[in-house]
Amino acid sequence: MKLIVTGSLGNISQPLTEMLVAQGHDVTVMSSDVKKKAAIEALGASAATGSIADVDFLTATFQGADAVYAMIPLSFTEPDLGEYLRRMAKNYVQALKATQVKRVVVMSGWVADLVKIENVENEFDDLEVSTTFMRPGSFYTNFYQSIDLIKGKGLMGKLLTLRYSGLWPLMTGKTGLLMGNCGGDDRIIFVSPKDIAGAVAEEIVLMPVQNTIRYVGSEELTCNEAAGIIGTAIGKPWLKWILLSDKAMLQGLKMAKVPEKLAETLVEMQAAMHSGEPLENFHRSNPKMGKVKLADFAKEFARVYHAK
């Protein structure tokens, strides 16, 4: 099959590309960075350089494709993140309609149906294409963004990188704490990007008659259990994940000079996770859990942590 992978060589797209090439598919990887061309070709895929903000580029790239994996990279330069996400989703829809691609797998989030800004899925409603929405839990790789803070180089108030997973903890490395208005004994679905890639690889070659939703997870843990696993791996077994009120979380984000609208959105998303409803939806879908456990990732995390 001729398959299009968006997301350049990111945490999901690179292992996904490797899997699809190994299965014998003709894979084209889209990237906005021309410097990634050689690395993409080294994986056995073709490179298409351009932006998903360019509908003409999308349309040209999708021509003749059997299926597309569509994800939207987040932007902090946009004044309205929700409007940006919806605009990029509409670009995908326009290009898919123009090229008559029959299959698309869309990266979404496990709180997508609970938070307005997350629900770009609605933009695909009138698309007459076999569509699957991937709803992964919180990425293991989010923890990489906390390294400097765990080392004591940052204080509470620094925002970690925003992810579709819906988890944006704050950390104070000097006290060994994770903080957020989702934390403590809240139960979270954590997921390895490799397991997400494996799930996408399974879905992209299918052709369900009706649109489907697939939740993806690797391990269910409380926030404190996850903090303990990461902390133990780096020699800080006391690492805890403190549950803040929505008000305290919002104040912390504002202290970090996060734009007010974005700060409110982040609080809303963590509040949804704290409610437990995303976890109920996850279990209701009866998904097959992935293979990579947080303890496995923690070993990789520790190597990176100690190397910095």
Automatic annotation (TrEMBL):
SUPFAM superfamilies, per database record: NAD(P)-binding Rossmann-fold domains
Residue stretches making up the NAD(P)-binding domain: 7-113
Pfam families: NAD_binding_10 (PF13460)
Gene3D superfamilies in UniProt: NAD(P)-binding Rossmann-like Domain, UDP-galactose 4-epimerase, domain 1
InterPro entries, per database record: Ergot_Alk_Oxidoreductase, NAD(P)-bd_dom, NAD(P)-bd_dom_sf
Protein name: NAD(P)H-binding protein
